[in-house]
Amino acid sequence: MKIKLNWGFGVVVAFVAFISFIMYFIVNMTTNKKYDYDLVTEDYYKEELAYQKEINKEKVTNMLGMQVLAEKTTDGLKIQFPPLLNPKEISGTMFLYRPSDKQQDFEIPISLSDSHLLIPNNRLKDGRWNIQIEWSYNGQEFLTKKQLVF
């Protein structure tokens, strides 16, 4: 039996080759751990609904000049709150997020005796950190977000 090579046969071969390539690509991407990426957070949609509250807190922080400063020192990461405030009345939480490894993420409650908070070097590995500081003073809520390369 002789196979007749014409344009119809070429189209069928092209379709089969294309579908085979796509199937290989899909199977490779879904089974290979190298391409396994997690979402930033598990409850992404739930957090999206609360995002407007974060925007409002950031606006208040900027309007009142209540920005929190973060700087790398020899002892660690120094978080400086506005110096005119009574540090004992500042409360809140600070979340440190590592984009490259969620196992290193951690949260610290804010409890101050001085106008700054120090996170020691051994808690922070070298690389990029996203810092989110949610704090309140006299019932007013503030939010500061920073990106830092440590």
From TrEMBL:
The chain crosses the membrane at residues 6-27. InterPro entries: FixH. Keywords: Membrane, Transmembrane, Transmembrane helix. This is FixH protein. Pfam families: FixH (PF05751). It comes from the Bacteria. The keyword Transmembrane applies.
